[in-house]
Amino acid sequence: MNSERGPRRPDPGRRDRIIDACLDVVAEAGVAGASHRKVAAAAGVPLGSMTYHFHGIGELLHEAFARFGTAESAAFDAAMAAAAGPAEAEAVIVGIVTAPADPRNLVLAHELYTLAAREPAFRDLTNEWMARSRASLERHFDPEAARMVDALIEGLTIHASLDTEPQDPAVAAEAVRRILRR
């Protein structure tokens, strides 16, 4: 099909680039600062591509956060799968809560939490993420402990990222030990 502009060029990765660019825009400007125009510019695509691939900014945000949550869950699951038993899994958990968080991923997680708190349509994403995390933890721990440790990981990570005082890794390690060895 030729038009005055020339033939259309296929761009099979365009939709994925838009989703990835959306996460970049949200990490930089927040959900409130994300717009079709900003995402299109970040993805290097025409503005019309936004409405061609997504019915609205809500659908784009949902797909972008779904991708983010799935990737974070996969990384966590790989770490839990690599642990040879409960003691190694405990060490992995302590490492996660005491290591400096990736600032980009931390911002994205907080943006998702806030969006899900305001918009029930996004709670499926946070619920699925929590379920995947608990399933990963249940490789080594009972379901009740997995639920508690999952909440502890989130809480300690948030505290470490927002506290103006450095966190004592020994305190985090003791919290994990207390839950898992109750």
Name of the CATH superfamily:
Tetracycline Repressor, domain 2
Mean pLDDT: 92
- The CATH topology assignment is Tetracycline Repressor, domain 2
Residue share in β-strands: under 5%
Largest sheet: none
**Cα gyration radius (Å):** 20 Å
Number of strands: 0
Protein name: Transcriptional regulator, TetR family
GO molecular function: DNA binding
DNA-binding region: 35-54
Keywords: DNA-binding, Transcription, Transcription regulation
What descriptors fit this protein?
9 helices; 182 residues; 0% strand; elongated; Tetracycline Repressor, domain 2; mainly alpha
What is the structure about, briefly put?
The chain is mainly α and 182 residues long. It is 73% helix and 0% strand.
Describe it for me?
The chain has 9 helices and no strands. With about 180 residues, it is an all-alpha fold. The chain has one domain (about 15-180): Tetracycline Repressor, domain 2 (Orthogonal Bundle), CATH 1.10.357. It is elongated and about 65 Å long. Keywords: DNA-binding, Transcription, Transcription regulation.
What's the helix and strand layout?
Layout: H1 14-29, H2 36-43, H3 48-53, H4 57-82, H5 86-98, H6 103-118, H7 123-137, H8 143-162, H9 169-180
